[in-house]
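Session log. Operator J.P. requested a structure for one protein chain; no other inputs attached. Running the standard single-chain path with token output.
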Amino acid sequence: MATDVELKAAGWHLPTGDDMVSDGDDNISNNARLAAGQIEATEKAAQQALAATEDKVTVTAAAAMGVYDSRAGIGGIFSANFRPTWVQIAEDGSPTPATMDILRGRLGYVTALSSQEGLHLIGDNYRGAPLGAGGGDTTAPRMTASLPDKWVHYGDSLTHWGSTEALAALTGWEHINAGYASNLSFQIAMRAGGWAIRVKLAGGTIPATGNVAIEASAPSYLPQTDNYRHPVQVAGVNGYISRYGDSGPILFTRSSPGEAVPAPGWQTVTLDPVEPDPKQTLGNARGYSMIVAMGRNDLLRGGRIENVLMNIRKTIGANAATAPSVLVWSIAPWSREPLGTANREKLDAWNQAIAAAFPEYFCDPCAYMRTPQAFTDLGLTPTPQDTQDMGQGLTPATFRSDSAGHFSEQGNQAWANFMLAEMKKRGIYV
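Structure written below.
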């Protein structure tokens, strides 16, 4: 059973006297304050009894009342008459799903619990405030959780071509499509603002008009393909980093003519300097919740899974929210990666590595799309080719737009069905 000390170590604030919530109450919404007042009124007798016992909360295994679930490891906080309150606690000190549901209903949207920082509640202004974290400045709250109804999708062509919009149609929320076809994981992380970038310009000068070649960069690998331009600022000059094709030079092109500007040595690159670009850093800069997918192109081009994992971390870490809601989804199989082949073994190993590195975020819509249930959920019947593809561990032909493995309209819908169900299961969509 959990003791007072264990609860405090897990980040819980133990009520003392009339203190039902912590000083952080000043930082939650008005709705949360009203709800907290209702809770205080209903539990007042219990608090007075607790105060009489040296301000300590007695946490007793609910087994004494015949309601302890030994499989789930759930205990609870008892009121003065030893009746279980609605507060239930798992063995790791976190609230149970039932407790979280009650909090959502009474206080509005509630983020996940952090055992280090305490319970974070998000009110109608979407500003997070730790309850019971102790210490710290409570006068200037910072966003600890991402905006629950605003999402940014970072990825490659599988994100770019329709999956984002399919999920937006189901949730009714804002979803920014920040996918870009052919992007490697480094490019995605760079667009998200995850990399600090420096460049050396040919001649050490930005010309009055036109472009200048980038001779070197840090990180050294700075690819831009498919005639793509990324808005940046270098030496105070707004412009674009671009690369035309896989073998063309990487250039910095200023957006408008002006005076030549000296830019010797290494120059810091500022991403999206004027207004964040929706396909780039806008979502992360504003603390949106995140859906992240990368690695498909790294796998095709002989990349390393270690770099993919690093770039996923950098993409998530670039978010303005310190505790964003995140889903990281699996790498979809390509048609040349059926079960039993060396290519498939590598794909499966990469997906296992992503799942192991991000256990709290990982989900596998691609596996769901290879099941008859995905067809049933859409009211479709698998074709013989679909059945054959599923047997080989490939995305069914009905869910593909090409022979490679990009999603069709039905595939995007199946993907979105899974992701919405996952969001509901995790309490993200309520």
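Operator note: DSSP finds 14 helices and 18 strands in the chain.
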